[in-house]
User: Fold these one by one.
Assistant:
Number 1:
Amino acid sequence: MTPRRGSAPAADKRRIILDAAIRVFAREGFHRCRVSDIAREANVAYGLVYHYFRSKDEILDTIFSERWALLVETIETVDKEDLPVREKLHTIASFIIDSYQHDPDLMKVIIVEVTRAANTFGSHHLDEIRRAYEGIGAIVAQAQEEGTFRDDISAPFASLCFYGAIEQLLSAWIFEALAKSPDDFEQAKEMVVETVCGGLELRGVSSVANTG
């Protein structure tokens, strides 16, 4: 059956609505906007938004879960690779920072409206958020077992420090508190990895030694 001219597949319409919601949430804030604002931004009928999503809350849940799942998948993939710990952490830092660079509105919504928000959204997604922290912690724990990282600092604490440093950078870029040229982004990746790994590496174990 050939679709009618001008019509879009359901998956495309759903994506159009989600992308429009990201722009509206980033521009106006989740709590200040309405479903009608999202429909207008997406150039679709008001009722079509409710065809795909039960509420504005479900739209935000979907935006977060889709993107966070990609982060967790990246962490799990990196953890399975035979790479020095610095390279693993650099890959994760790069994924998060590149995500901001490529879609700042999306990352603004995730940071401001979910992970740093003192509301039900953050608590609703705690299990998802923990999976990322635990994945990073597993990478740190493996480096401790191999004798690359000191073991007097807990892996969960180190994981929070690593992700927390990146999240703070994202917040600074979101609120225009730091310069954000391509060079700034690349330097930020290096500094986060150096700060965390430099504090965790045993004396005499350098990044050169880690690269085998």
Note: The first helix runs from residue 10 to 28.
Number 2:
Amino acid sequence: MTRWTRPLCRALAALAGSLLLSTAAHAAGPMVKTQAPGYYRMMVGDFEVTALFDGVIDVQPTKLLTNTTPAQVNKLMARSFQKEPLPLSVNAYLINTGSKLVMVDAGTGSLGGPTLGGLAAHLKAAGYQPEQVDEIYITHLHFDHVGGLMQDGKIAFPNAVVRADRRDAEFWLSQANADKAQGEAKVFIQHAITSLKPYVDAQRFKPFDGNTDLVPGVKAVASHGHTAGHTIYLVESKGQKLVLWGDLMHVAAVQFPQPQVTIAFDSDSKAAAVQRKKAFAEAAKQGHVVGAAHLPFPGLGRLRTEGKGYGFVPVDYLPVK
């Protein structure tokens, strides 16, 4: 090594050492531990549909699911690499028809725990403001679908008209029912009253009766069973169809292969099972996209028949065209 090359080698070695130290320092940086904003966008014909993530709620399917056994539930969950407690998504859907901005369900607001209540922030992250929402269609009046109607004791969507089936309104908005109810049922009814009363007082709650055309391209379809007025919503534009199921089903790993499985929250479990089987069969036959409140976010996909049950094929993550 000559007297000219020796300093060059020392300089290169020093540079290599500094690069190694720099890499090590970056690798030791703190973990971020935050998720991307909870929205997913797709088109249905000319309509822009945005799925909104409210959060997750931990449930125990072996205790909640009925018309089955804990052993069978655990077996089916294990096939999907799941176990208890199961984090169940809470989803809502925003539909921009071009002339109306419609939201289906409103999340939990402050009525859930720390893993819930994200809908308002994710609505804004998706490029919309609460005051832009024209109408809100509620699948049923359980707290995880209506809690987000209020924020800090005030109406969260100041320009929106809220709509739901009159059968749900008559039961869940009855103070008499709240007074005579016990335990969890009493809490559920009181949550519904608290969430809807300001809209009722402002004359911006307008119940409908069964199958009803709401705005062009969006229709309410009666699917009574989970609650007395449970409703699914059909969104259709240019021959493309999206059906929003609400709580027609809850635990995908169990109820897709075994649609007869029901849940303790059903007001009429037999009727709920009939509605689920009907919706599953229609979706598999027609091939349209479905969305559900408790499918893993964004809760959108298609069904195909698999033996005596069904398989769920989630939508791809694609650019919006």
Note: The longest helix spans residues 5-27.
